[in-house]
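User:
I would dearly like some help making sense of a protein record. Take your time, and here it is.
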Amino acid sequence: MRKILLFLRKIIPRPILNFYHYLWSLFFAVVTGFPSRRIIVIGITGTKGKTTVSYLTYYLLTKLGFKTALSSSEYFFIGEEKVENKSRLTMPGRGFLQRFLKQAINKGCEIAILEITSEGLMQNRHSFIDFDITVFLGLHPEHIEHHGSYEAYRNSKGKLFKALEKSKTKKVLRGLPIRKTIIVNADDFEADYFLSFRAEQKITYSLEAKIQDSFQITPQSYKITSKGLEFILENKKFSSPLLGKFSLYNILASFSIIKALGLSINNLDGFLKDFQGLPGRMEIIKAKGFQVVIDYAHTPHSIEEVYKTVLQLLKPKRLLCLIGSAGGLRDKWKRPVIGEIAAKYCNYIVIANEDPFDEDPMSILKSIELGAKRYLAEFEIEKPIEIIPDRKEAIQRLINLTEKGDVVITIGKGNEPSIAFKDYSLPWNEKEVVLEAIKNKNHSKISTKTL
């Protein structure tokens, strides 16, 4: 069946496929009675950070006593009910979101949070959803070959904010009118584009920029350490165990959503302290003498941010890195770039499968290797690089190489439950594989912590 679907996608013009999805959205909107008109809907988009911001917002709203639904790339939540997203699609098609919103209403949810992707928007899976708050986290080159250009990728994201312009239903949250709101990361290069759409209210969050004609959320001061984050916002001190500057941006995005809902952030500090993050997002496993960091980063920018954060905060003796890239003819341009970044920051590099899909795995790995070797040759640097396609074997190799003070970083998989090949999916749990590799190295004292 999967082969048939892939073949059909290749031969059917994209506009026809997009219209096909539009019809599904219309059909299920009608069948379910346009459920988005009866629930507060928050749409969150950006190249990275969607899952963390979505889940943190869900967590905070739940702690504040609001029954909330969440549709994300990893799980679906309706109140406290949790179901794994086995499709691995952030925005499943065939009317899924309409049915999800209907179910959320039937279960008494007041708010729904939706992760929104460029592909889902391009395929009109958001159509006939009445949004109340739309959030832009940031944009970096990704899915360029699929969209045709960076501008087309950006404009696809813009469809979410165009949908907000068209959303006319006036909604209330426990008697409080909700204003149609755009939330934008003001420090992103594309901030002005996403602020150009019409809305009743615009909120920006920032660590650097000042944007006119918007309500701005900016910490008066902040501190980033190996133990987490501390910042002062609206004269109140907050702290979080999450690591890195990007985590502070994610927190500010969630706080902006809370403000857009007309709620106070003053009583969020205790909840924020208890939020340990998501599995596979800057998750640290401590073994005897070394540490392992598991992260989902899969774009050049996010990978570089992870390396910088680990070097700055954990101060490793050596950085041993497992890298890879997805197949399926996705963003082939970034493969050598990922290799270059690893060559710049890592002391030892192992290249392994991430999700080859229907491509030749070795061609993907060789392309990454080319980028790494090109960088090393340009700067006349020597660093060891290995290609080990089997990801489990690759992780064991890096663990076996560790010395006191080293940090191993694995990127690209995070908490994903499988590795996708052409004809099958291999069940996968990165953390379990890492723990097994540490055990095989005969380290007995192991502790885990998600940051």
